[in-house]
Design goal:
alpha+beta; 16 helices; about 600 residues; seven-stranded antiparallel sheet; 22 strands
Length: about 600
């Protein structure tokens, strides 16, 4: 293929001598949806609640539009919303999520549902490979078919993918117009989001070795945007474009690096990640108000004055999970776990569950005047598709491994079984983090084994400590790195990790130093905002903030979310306790008002 030359990047993509499809650039790797089991927690409950919803959708309803278009009997009822004609906008995501989640949990019911849907869908594809989808939906289908092959063990998945790829390669428009921030121009390019297609085509190439997938992947490379990050983490003109898809396109760049080994592409990924963290992300890890990447000129903070559509929470989390996971795998660096953690607790992990006839959580609301979690007005949107993929990914973010050691990336109640050369190692990870400070890991193994056990030290932490069997470990806990314990382990060994949790202000951007969220550890806090009382005076600094907020043991207040851990009492300007409280943003349910970002120098604002 011919790739436009630009600033020393991708100009030689056509000459890449790609390694075999099974090779990798991996330094450390996740457990690939096996060997990790979640224990009881909010995150497991979120998975179970939404799993039940997906299973409640009848196969006939999901397949109705495809069958009708093929002239086959089509019982059932259309799902409506984005899926009024058929479920193509999210069908591939559902196949992907069902394959991954059933592999991670051993859920035969979910596996069988995904397998049936694929088999029946295949019957509706025309003999020439026309599946009735264009770029946006087809990219998701490609992901679903790859995952049904890798994780669902479905023998029909790859032959079907070859068939639909043959058709797409002959018929798809590929003018590949870059996205534009100009008024009335497509901010997701033309055809829409074409620059996301390469990722799963490269994955298909890796899974099969079939060069047709690699060849078609290279049609969709995006040097016009990627090259902006080739030599800098502060590009002058990378903003104004569709946020989710332009984060998601870096997963295509990641797979280009995986296959080609192009060092410049890895540099692009690093620079893009740093740019996103420094200029685009709110304290939650969310980004893209009004679905736009913003100029680093104070627009991020300014958007909080008017935009309810602060963050496309579920799809945006999915793109962030993937980019972080690729970078951690390629580099082995702990710092990429911080974005995973923030998005787990404050992004998709704070989303409302699917309900009703496809009512789904789409936009998170961080406005300074107060926000509220509400359902999207139209049903079965893209976030109803990416949700199940995110939930499956919970299992793939907690632990990493290499040939010698085990890495603890997230502090989530779970068990992991690791096949070590010296024998299987099972670890039970018990914790109430991020609401409480301590995590305890207990090792179970048949024989003593020496290996390094590494723990991610969050970049924001101060004073993290580790004990082994009740004795302080002589280990350095440098923020943004791995704290490493190398010893001969035996069954029954217990490791206690303490991560101090303090309140801090996190300003939204440099131009708004006093417009800040209150953060405790990795968790963004929000204030109950439904009470008719004066506002509290924002403390001047982090030390005063930690003195002003105290654990609240009161009973439930009328119209308030239920009490629970990490709920803190707020004091008014006269020092007396107010009815309102500060609690984790993720604990707020539908339609309960909260304040996340506050102008610290403007409070209190007495209006009577």
């Amino acid at each position: 293929m011919a790739v436009p030359a630009a600033a020393g990047l991708l100009a030689n993509a056509a000459q890449d001598s790609a390694p075999s499809a099974t090779s990798s650039r991996t330094r450390i790797e996740p457990f690939d949806y096996q060997g990790v089991r979640l224990l009881n927690s909010r995150w497991l409950q979120q998975i179970q609640e939404n799993r039940a919803y997906y299973l409640s959708l009848t196969n006939d309803d999901i397949l109705k539009g495809f069958r009708a278009a093929a002239g086959a009997p089509a019982p059932g009822t259309t799902l409506g919303g984005w899926c009024e004609r058929d479920t193509s906008p999210i069908f591939g995501q559902w196949l992907s999520g069902m394959a991954r989640l059933s592999k991670a949990t051993g859920d035969s019911e979910l596996h069988d549902k995904g397998s049936y849907l694929l088999t029946e869908f295949a019957k509706t594809v025309k003999p020439d490979g026309n599946c009735g989808m264009q770029h946006y939906a087809w990219e998701k289908l490609c992901c679903g078919l790859v995952d049904m092959h890798l994780y669902g063990g479905h023998q029909e998945a790859i032959p079907l993918l070859e068939k639909v790829t043959d058709y797409a390669s002959k018929t798809f428009a590929h003018q590949n117009v870059a996205a534009s921030r100009a008024p009335h121009m497509p901010f997701s390019g033309s055809p829409g989001e074409w620059y996301t297609l390469a990722e799963n085509l490269y994955r298909a190439y890796q899974a099969t070795g079939n060069p047709k997938f690699k060849t078609f992947a290279e049609v969709w490379l995006y040097p016009a945007y990627w090259n902006k990050f080739a030599d800098t983490a502060a590009p002058a003109d990378a903003y104004g474009l569709h946020a989710y898809s332009h984060v998601n396109t870096f997963s295509s760049a990641a797979m280009h690096y995986e296959v080609s080994g192009d060092a410049t592409t890895l540099r692009i990924l690093r620079n893009a990640y740093d740019w996103l963290q420094r200029t685009q992300c709110y304290a939650t890890g969310g980004y893209g108000p009004d679905e736009r990447l913003l100029a680093p000129d104070g627009s991020l903070g300014k958007a909080l004055e008017s935009r309810q559509s602060t963050f496309e929470a579920v799809c945006g989390s999915w793109a962030g999970f993937k980019l972080s996971r690729y970078l951690m795998r390629f580099t082995g660096e702990a710092r990429y776990g911080d974005w995973m953690e923030r998005l787990l607790y404050n992004g998709v992990g704070a989303a409302l569950p699917l309900t009703g006839r496809g009512r789904n959580f789409y936009y998170a609301d961080y406005r300074v005047g107060g926000g509220m979690k509400v359902y999207r007005y139209d049903n079965f949107t893209c976030c109803a598709g990416s949700l199940i993929q995110c939930l499956a990914d919970y299992h793939n973010l907690i632990y990493y491994k290499d040939s010698a050691g085990l890495y603890v990336n997230l502090y989530v109640p779970s068990e992991v079984t690791w096949s070590h050369p010296g024998g299987d190692v099972k670890i039970r990870h018990e914790t109430e983090y991020p609401l409480e400070e301590t995590s305890t890991l207990t090792l179970d193994m048949a024989q003593t084994t020496e290996f390094p056990l590494r723990f991610r030290v969050p970049e924001w932490v101060s004073g993290m400590s580790i004990q082994v069997n009740g004795t302080p470990a002589n280990v350095t806990c440098t923020p943004g790195s791995w704290a490493t314990l190398v010893r001969t382990w035996k069954g029954g060994d217990r490791v206690e990790v303490r991560i101090p949790l303090r309140f801090r202000y996190q300003p939204v951007d440099q131009q708004h130093p006093n417009r800040a969220a209150i953060v405790r550890g990795p968790v963004v806090m929000a204030m109950d905002f439904s009470f008719l009382e004066s506002l509290f005076r924002a403390p001047d600094n982090d030390d005063d903030l930690n003195k002003a907020l105290t654990l609240d043991a009161r009973q439930v207040v009328r119209d308030s979310p239920p009490p629970g851990p990490a709920v803190f009492q707020v004091r008014g300007t006269d020092g007396r306790p107010l009815t309102r409280r500060v609690r984790p943003y993720f604990s707020f349910g539908e339609n309960f008002p909260y304040a996340m970002y506050i102008d610290t120098k403007a409070w209190p604002a007495n209006m009577w």
